[in-house]
């Protein structure tokens, strides 16, 4: 029953029932646990902690952040999938955990479409197409023309197999019918340094990571891989503005609950978390590390999950990315 409920929410989120007065009265009867499937100190952990106090005050219950790292988020996600669906256990997960693990791992131990139900999106940070300043291109069209001057295309810096940044570059290749050869590095900062040193002259990397290098002139920002410009680099146009609207990639963090969690609990949790996210203190704190608050309805998060899963399945299949 839990599995059918979650799948239907992702497939047809617009059919969500409207909350009633009885539903709005839900309140937790014991502390709420927000499971973060990564170590303390990272962006996902920050997302949980910025709403922790606001949730506790609004719900009149203690809210505990429980870090359960391992297997790129799979260990903590499996744990939440197995918990009672009563509103007292939530998963605070990165986009990679919810929409990339399921398409690059043979058996992550959880099924996003069957084991979880959306609560709200928390924050987003887009990727950015960047090049070394020596590359003779300043627009997407010029980058495509430059790439096509090489039989096998240029090398591109990859932040790791199956990362949103690698998949973002592979998506760019598919949409523009270009070639480029991945050169793997140990994470986004290392990949950015590789482009700065011209070891690989092009990459799609997280805007929060490469933004300071673009501002300093060490990299050239070509396009933001999202629906709107990046506030810290407003002069860099989006892919949509440059004729590639299908190119959307980046990192985001969302909160989901075990499938089958009652509607009154889900609606109340969404209301409380969205209110906590929209405070100036939270908005400013996340902006300092390059993330924008993107508090959403459950339906909107359901659409995001479904769209990203479909997008990355296509990229993995068409780019022949190995599934482990």
Could you explain the architecture of this structure?
The chain is α/β, with parallel strands linked by helices and 324 residues long. The protein folds into 2 domains: 2-125 and 251-318, Bordetella uptake gene, domain 1 (D-Maltodextrin-Binding Protein, domain 2, 3-Layer(aba) Sandwich); 126-242, Periplasmic binding protein-like II (D-Maltodextrin-Binding Protein, domain 2). The chain is 42% helix and 19% strand. The chain has helices at residues 2-11, 21-24, 43-59, 74-81, 95-104, 112-115, 140-147, 164-176, 188-196, 207-215, 263-277, 280-288, 298-318; strands at residues 32-36, 63-67, 89-94, 116-131, 155-158, 181-184, 202-206, 220-224, 250-258, 292-293. Strands 1, 2, 3, 4, 7, 8, 9 and 10 form an 8-stranded mixed β-sheet that branches. A two-stranded parallel ribbon has the order 5-6. Helix 3 (43-59) crosses helix 11, helix 5 runs parallel beside helix 13 (298-318) and helix 8 crosses helix 13. Mean pLDDT is 91; it is low at 1-23.
Q: Outline the biggest β-sheet.
A: 8 strands, mixed
Count of β-strands:
10
Topology-level CATH name of the largest domain: D-Maltodextrin-Binding Protein, domain 2
CATH domain class name of the largest domain: Alpha Beta
| SS-derived structural category | alpha/beta
Q: Quickly give the CATH architecture of the largest domain.
A: 3-Layer(aba) Sandwich
Uncertain runs with pLDDT below 50, 5 residues or more?
A: 1-23
Give the N-to-C terminal Cα separation.
30 Å
Average pLDDT number: 91
Approximate strand percentage: 15-25%
Shape: globular
Number of domains: 2
List the helices and strands in order: HHEHEHEHHEHEHEHEHEEHHEH
Q: With helices defined by DSSP (H or I, 4 residues minimum), what is the helix count?
A: 13
Protein name: Tripartite tricarboxylate transporter substrate binding protein
Keywords: Signal
Family: Belongs to the UPF0065 (bug) family.
Signal peptide: 1-24
């Amino acid at each position: 029953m839990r599995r059918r409920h979650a799948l239907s929410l992702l497939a047809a989120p617009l059919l969500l029932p409207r909350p009633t007065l009885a539903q709005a009265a839900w309140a937790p009867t014991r502390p709420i646990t927000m499971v973060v499937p990564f170590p303390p100190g990272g962006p996902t952990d920050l997302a949980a902690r910025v709403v922790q106090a606001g949730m506790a005050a609004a719900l009149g219950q203690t809210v505990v952040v429980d870090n359960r790292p391992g297997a790129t988020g799979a260990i903590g996600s499996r744990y939440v999938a197995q918990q009672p669906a009563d509103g007292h256990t939530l998963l605070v997960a990165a986009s990679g955990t919810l929409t990339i693990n399921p398409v690059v791992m043979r058996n992550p131990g959880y099924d996003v479409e069957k084991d979880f139900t959306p609560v709200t999106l928390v924050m987003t940070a887009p990727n950015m197409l960047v090049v070394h300043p020596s590359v003779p291109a300043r627009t997407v069209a010029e980058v495509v023309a430059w790439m096509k001057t090489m039989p096998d295309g240029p090398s591109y810096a990859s932040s790791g197999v199956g990362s949103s940044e690698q998949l973002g570059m592979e998506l760019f290749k598919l949409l523009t019918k270009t070639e480029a050869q991945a050169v793997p590095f140990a994470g986004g900062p290392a990949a950015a340094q590789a482009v700065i040193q011209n070891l690989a002259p092009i990459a799609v990397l997280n805007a929060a990571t490469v933004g300071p290098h673009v501002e300093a002139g060490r990299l050239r920002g070509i396009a933001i891989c999202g629906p709107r410009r990046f506030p810290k680099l407003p002069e860099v146009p989006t892919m949509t503005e440059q004729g590639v609207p299908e190119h959307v990639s980046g990192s985001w963090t969302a909160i989901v609950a075990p499938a089958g969690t009652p509607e009154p609990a889900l609606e109340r949790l969404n209301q409380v978390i969205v209110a906590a996210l929209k405070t100036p203190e939270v908005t400013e704190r996340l902006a300092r590390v390059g993330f924008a608050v993107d508090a959403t309805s459950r339906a909107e998060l359901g659409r995001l999950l479904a769209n990203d899963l479909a997008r990355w399945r296509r990229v993995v299949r068409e780019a022949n990315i190995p599934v482990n």
